[in-house]
Write a structure and sequence with these properties.
248 residues; mainly alpha; membrane
Length: 248
Amino acid sequence: MEPLYLPHFKHVLNSLLMFFSIYLIGYFIIFRKWSKKTRPEASSCLISLFHGTPAAIVATTAIVADANCGFAAANTEFQNLVLDFSTAYFAADLFHLAVFSAGDLLFIGHHVATLFVILTCRHVALHGAFSVLSLLALAETTSAFQNAWALARARRRDVAFAAKVCDALSAPFYGLYSVVRGVVGPCFVFKMAVFYLSGRAEGVIATWVWVSWVVVVSMAIVVSILWVSNLWIELYSERTRKVEEKTI
C-alpha cells in the first residue's frame, strides 16, 4: 500500500485548488446573473468541462504510452498523475454536492464509489490503472456533450435560446450516452471481469479489490442506464405532447 503523503498528495492538492478556483470563478463571475438554484449546477458543469475531456485524453495517452499495459499491469507514474487529477475533481464536485445538493444521494453515491475505485487503484493495489483509466476515458467521452446539454437544460425555462439548444442536443446526447454506457461500457467490464476471474491477477491485485471494482462499476452502469432511460421517456412524452398540441 502506498501512503497518502507528499509528494503524492501535492498533485491532488494542486488540482483540487485549480478546480475550486474554477468553481468560484463560475459561481461569482461567469454565472453571477443566474438564479440561486442554477448557479451551483452551472459552476459544477464548468469544473466538469475542465476535467472530462482533458481526463479522457490524458487517460488514453497514459494507457497508450505504457508498453506493458494490461488489466494486471503495474501503474506508471503518468497513470498515477491522471488518477490524482481525477481524484481532485471528484473530491471537489463531491464537496459541491454536499453543500448544495445534500439530498442528491444518487450522485453523491456515484462520486464516493468512483473515488473508492480510483483511490484503491492508486494507493492500495498499485496495479490495474489500465482498467480504471479505460473506464474513466469511456465515461468522460460524453462529458462535454453532457455539460453543454445540462447548462442549456438549466436555463431552458428562462432563455428561449437555451430551450432550443436543449431540445436540439437531447436526442443526440441520449443516443451517444446510451451507446457508451449501455453497450461499450458493459462489454469492457465483462472483459475485465473475465480476466480477473481467470486468476491472472492473483498475487498482484487482491481479490477483494478487483471484485469491488467490478461490482461498483457494474452498479454505476445500471444506474446510468436507468437515468438515461428516464430521460428518453421524458423526451418521448414531451415530443408526443407537442405533436398532439399541433394537431388540435
